[in-house]
Structure formats: structure tokens, C-alpha cells
Design a protein that fits this description.
By secondary structure, this protein is α+β, with helices and mostly antiparallel strands. It has 16 helices and 37 strands. The strands form eight sheets. Strands 18-17-23-14-15-22-19-20 form an eight-stranded antiparallel sheet. A seven-stranded mixed sheet has the order 2-3-1-4-5-11-6, sandwiched between helices. Strands 29, 34, 35, 36 and 37 form a five-stranded antiparallel sheet that branches. A hairpin with a 5-residue loop joins β12 and β13. α1 crosses α9, α6 packs antiparallel against α7 and α12 crosses α13.
Amino acid sequence: MAREPSSIRTVAIVGQGGVGKTSVADALLFAGGANTRLGRVDEESSLFDTEPEELRRRSTITSSLFSFEWKKHGITLIDTPGQGNFVTDAYFALRGAAAAVLVLDASSPLRAETMKLWAWLEEEQMPALVFVNRLDRSEVDLEARLNELEELTQKRTTLLSLPLGAGDELRGVVDLRAGRALVFSGEDGKATEQDVPSELADRVEELRAKLMEDAAEGDDALVEKYLEEGELGEAEVLAGLRAAVRARQILPVLVGSAARNIGLGGLLEAIVELLPAPVERGAESAVDADGNEVTLAPDPSDPVLALVFKTIIDPHAGQLSVVRLLSGTLSGDTQLQNTVTGMRERVGNLLRLEGKKTTQVQEATVGEIVAVAKLKDTHTGDTLADPARPWKARPLKEFTPVITFAVAAKKRGEEDKAAQGLMRLAEEDPALQVTRDEGSGEILLSGAGQLHVEVACEKLERKYGVGVELKAPKVPYRETIRKSVKAHGRLKKQTGGHGQFADCWIEVEPLPRGGGFEFVDKIVGGVIPKGFIPAVEKGVREAMAKGSIAGYPVVDVKVTLYDGQHHEVDSSEMAFKIAGSMAFKAALEQAKPCLLEPYVTLEVTVPDECMGDVMGDLNARRAKVEGMEQVGHNQRIRAKVPMAEVLRYAPDLTSLTSGRGTFEMSFSHYEQLPDHLVPKVVEEARRREEEASA
């Protein structure tokens, strides 16, 4: 049976890298009875981090889901990556979830990834709780973390628990709603309830008063009662907090240590009591069959509409499409329509994910997350809908890669196998892009950083048995001309029998940047028959694939075919293709060719105190700064920068800003490469060509 919609909780566990999110998720499973032992990342017993690449690095690389039942609630936790190379996967998890738990490290300041995650939470208008982890470590500073959080979010934080001790002396928490101390003596998650220690009594009373004020603020009746009586009952506090959390007016904060299993029971209670069921989040926007924006109610009796927010591909089990039901109730053996591709898909078995295991269910209702196996042509970001109402869900955000490597198979003849394997990895990870270089035919792998690309190559070898090597990031230089010239191409081979003859004259002119390629036919009088003119254009295009300076494709040229000759017997399409190629190559030598380099638009957000260092670094990279604006306590810089200067910008910005800077990058335009840099680019192109032919 499907779960009762109001009892469902789908929660993404998010936070910057290294704060212990996976440990929190494992401890929640233990607290909820879904695991009989406390899973630990360092012991490789986590039910979330199970991939070899994750176990080796002790770090989450891809989101993982676990669904379980607790106190008549169906809970699905999504553990997400927080490291910068992989954090985009957290966005896709947020599109699958209805609420979030933001995990902080009590001993570590907030970094750029938390800023990015909070921006996504804002975009999704997602209710959230905060769990401050690792209070068992030395040099913790809870007050500093709360101040940083309020500065980032511009929202009030409300403590629901307070630590008893810190560092090695951490022994429990104070439940501020109940006004009782919970002392933990082992790792079983069970606590002994005690009176609040006398040295904390005043602080607890102060925080309980604030908690009641925050709970009452959004409810006039509660405000009136609190002002009259100076106290609210626990049920009234709960009702006020629930309303405030769901309206995103406050951020409730709980504290503890996942490693010591302290405070996780309280977090699980808060997930159930304070966070909304997906059906309580309200209507979503969608697009109907005519392209109009419509409102999608989360109604279990409406036609089915499901968003595919994650794809899992196993070399043996095949493809699993993980969906969030936005409306309707879905049963197995159902025909749905992929409203992005237009293809009908048969939904077979429905599966609940429990880490690496699955459990088959007969049906799923609105708000639930289930996996569907072996769909024919469905990808992350697609919508599956009842054919009677073929609407599309709100699309997923697309992420622009920031680094590109050429990929070469270690064994000759395995290039196609490597490309196919990488394409399958990109199905699982939309932040990866796999393309072919137009000029060299090399496989290009793009991602969010060097580590992202390297891990993809490790997975390729493990899952698909193809070893590859990464070559240095490639800059897609282009060549063009600066002068109009006329040139002649003539092919004549008439040594008896059937020969080859073609003769053409072309004029080659430069076009504005971004002009591409134009071919104009000005032949009159039939000196070149109409049937041979496309062959001339084809020859020109083939010659444009390799420029005369460094072998890069030629762009932004106009070619006019204006004269020529043909032979009734010896002329052919092949002959005119060769003549067209000869003419263009001759023109290129005379037309003042030059190299073009790509520029990107770079938006960098950094703390005010890092501004000078970042600006100096950008100037050294030949950046053209276009503007700056204040964003809270940060500065946002917008600049145009040569792509070659920022291929590996991420680690440099991290170093300059102690991990607090973020950036977005997108292609902008091409400009002429300065003369003093041309020899270096030419030499690099020559070296690549030699390596490719070796």
C-alpha cells in the first residue's frame, strides 16, 4: 500500500564538505531503528557511502537514498555531497526532497559550499532545520556558527537544544522545549532524562523564553497568551514552531555529535514534528501541453506526474530512474508518457531505495520517492505523466562545466568503449559533459573541477573496464582572417583516359566575430555547372577544419565563388571538392590569418576582506572587469577573462579566499590572441599533434 501523504517526510541532508553529513544520516537510521548498528564512514559500514571511490576518500561523491518507517511516518533521507567538485548533486537531491537538514560543523567556519547550498534552498523556498554537529571536538564555537548562519541567511535561528559540555566532556543535550537534560552514556542513542544542571539553569530559562517568543510570533492567539501568561505549553510551542518552519520564518537549530550518537533522537523527532510532508508544501508550477504555465496541486487523486531527479546505472542491473511524485498515485505496470521526449514508457516494478538495497512496493502516492527500472528513453530532468494530462514539471537547473580534459584510452581501439562508458556516467551525473573535439576527434570530458573528472575516470575503469588517461585541459582556439583576398584552385590530371579537372576562383572576406561561415554562389553562364557548386563548398568547409597557423578550425569568413572552368568529361564532384579546398588554403596564406582565443564571463563572489587579492589575481589573468556590486558582506565581480587563464581557477580561488569564494563561468566570445602569446599556442598545438600521431 502507498503511504498516507501527510505521513511522508522526504529530507535532503546538506552541508559543506567535511561536516559529517553522512554520519548524521547514518545516526538517524540508527535512531529510527532502520539499522541495528551505528554506521560509520571510517569503518566503511555506512549505509550511504558505499561506492569504492567514496570509501577510498572517506567522502560522499554522489547522493544516496534510504527509505524507512518510524512512528507511523515514511521517511526518506537523501545524503548529499558537499565538496565543491560534487556539490551540484545536492541541487538535484533538493528537487527530489520536500525539506532539508543543513548540517554545520561546530569547529569549522561556513565556507562557499554552504553559501551555494543556501542559495538553492532559497530558490526552492524549502523549509529547513539546522543540526550543528561535532560538538565533541576541540575548539568548538556554537555562537560563532549561529552568527555566521544568521548573517548568511538573514533569518532568525532558534535553539531547540543546548550542549551539555563540549569537546571530550560532551555528555548530552538540554531539550529546550521540555526543559530537561538528556545524558547519553553509550552509543546506543538512549538517554537518561535529568534535571538541568544548576550552572545552566539561567541560560536555559533565557533560551526557553526566546523559543516561546519565536514560536508565538506568527500566531496572534499565541502571542496574546504568551504576553498574558508569560508561558506556552509544549504543544503550543510545537504548533507555533511547525507553522513558522513551514513558512520559512525561522531556522530551528539542534546540536550534538553524530560520531557519539548524541542528539540525533531529537533531530529525528524534529524532522517528523516540524518539517512538512511534500503534500503540505503547496502547489508546484508546471507547463501544460500547449506550453502554458499551470499550477500543479499535490493531490493523490489527480493524474500522475513525476519528476526524474536522479538516474542510477548499474552495469548488471541496468538503469534505475528515481522519481518524485508531484501528483497522483502510481501503480506498477502502468503506461506513462515522457513529456520531454514524447515517448511512452511502461512502468514496471516500483522500488523503494534503502542504500544499495531495494524493496518492491505495489504503489506510491504523491510526495513519495521511488525508483523505476529499465525505462527505454528517460533521463534525469525528464517528466513522466499520465498521457491524459501530458504536463511537464519545472525543469532542473543546468550547470556549466568549469574544466575540460581530453581523454585517451590506454589501450588502442577502446576509444569508442570509453566514450560509451563516459556517456553512461554522464547519465548518472548531469554535471559531467562528454563531447568530441571537432578538429581532432578527441573525447572531451568536462566537469565541475579536476577531482570531479578524475573520479569519473576511476568509475569508468571500475564499472566498464576501460582505462583512460587525461591530457591537459584544452582551450578551443580558433583561426580567422583579417584581409579580403582572391585565390585560385585548379586540379588538372589529364594523362590519357578519364582524367580529373576542376578550376575555381573564390574571394575570401573576414566576417564580424561570431559571424560563422557564409558561402555565396556568384557563378554566371554555367562556367561551373550547378551540380558541382556544392562540392566546391564542401571542399572549402573541409579546408576550414584545419587552419594554417596552428591547425585550429577557421571561423568568421565569407567565401564567394565567382568564376571557374569545367571539362565535359573529366570534371566531377570530387575534382571540384579538391579544387575548392586548394583555393581556400591558398587564400588563407594571403589573408593575414590570426589566432582567436575564447573568453568566458566570470562572476566571482568573495568576502569584502578578500577583494584586493582577488582583483589583483584577476588582473594578472588578463581579465577585463566590467563591474562590481555589494551582496551582503560580499562583493560580486563580473569580468571577461581568457579561458586559458581560468582553466583551473577553482583551487586558486579557494586558496585566495580560504574557501569562502564562489564563482560561475560561462562562454562569452572570441577575441584575437595577443601576438606575444601566439608562439606558445602554436608550439602546444604541434606537440599535441605529434602525440596524437605517435
